[in-house]
Request: fold
Amino acid sequence: MTTPASTSAPTASDDPAAPLRIRSDDRTARGEGLIARWADRIDVDDATPRLTIGEGGTPLVHARRLSERLGVELHLKLELANPTGSFKDRGMCVAVARAVQAGATTLICASTGNTSASAAAFAAAAGLQCVVIVPTGKIAAGKLLQAQVAGALVIQIDGSFDDGLAAVRELSTRPGIALVNSVNEYRIEGQKTGAFEVVEDLGGTAPDWLCIPVGNAGNITAYWRGFTELHASGELTSLPRLLGVQAAGAAPLVDGHDIERPETLATAIRIGRPARGDQALAAVADSRGQLRKRTDEQLVEAYALLAKDAGIFCEPASAISVAGLIDAIHDGTIARGSRVVCVLTGHGLKDPDTAATIVQPTIACGPSAAAIAAVIDANA
Reply:
């Protein structure tokens, strides 16, 4: 099931001016921290701590082999290159810095995995306590370990992510506790800088389409905010269309109703009641874009394709952006030759169990060069 898409992207004018660069000569270099780099464009002030663990400034990679295979100019935004291996670091640094500024002593969040890892890391860097609520048995082992290693108090509940989010929203009313899920506006402020970087790396222009996984819907909301701010300032003459992609077993925005028991192997987007669902729907509509859903089998195919044709090992939820792209090209929604950015939100090592289902088994042989050569020849 898909939502309707229009035939043309919105433009600022029929005769667009030459593209503008975002970065000026006096802007800090990548690696000095997202807040320091974008302080004039996000909701911080001079008193906000310049907290950083090296987030942001992630690569935008032209996937040439995949581009040839799919018939589009495909670029991959590698948010998996953030310090904790996911896009969450981009917004978390701003949320935690603002929490420190407000005098918080404890961070709290509900998580399907990536938020917990990021919150725990930034809490450690800021010297704060971190409390993480996760659904029992519904979080990839690598993500759970990240939070534990960073010293978070991890509480597993007999319920869903959505149940956990309801609980932490209530608990965050206690003095000294800051909620750092994507309902926190500072998270969106940090995450919108991903759009700034995409435009910057494309020479001051937007892609024709931005394809992005949708779980709690904060990231698609943030990217659209970033693009529209550049458009409003005159630095961007045309806006991209958004393709938001959900897993078939956890697709409340596509299906048009909440999912009480969402199910998908893509744990990062196993969410049945997205907190920013209305904003995501508005962003897709405003961009003249589309929402669609893909099955677990289809996302695993894209997951394997990214590794084998682009050399990128992402987590399953990330690959759903490419699964959606493939489907949209096939049905003509995205035209051949379009410039497309797919946001890859998390690293494959966060969920090694899924990777183990698609790889070729190791082959045992003797230690001689001849024995090894025989195996190579047999598998050529």
Remarks:
- The chain has two domains: 54-85+187-355, 88-184.
- The longest helix spans residues 218-232.
- Residues 88-184 form a domain with the Rossmann fold fold (CATH 3.40.50.1100).
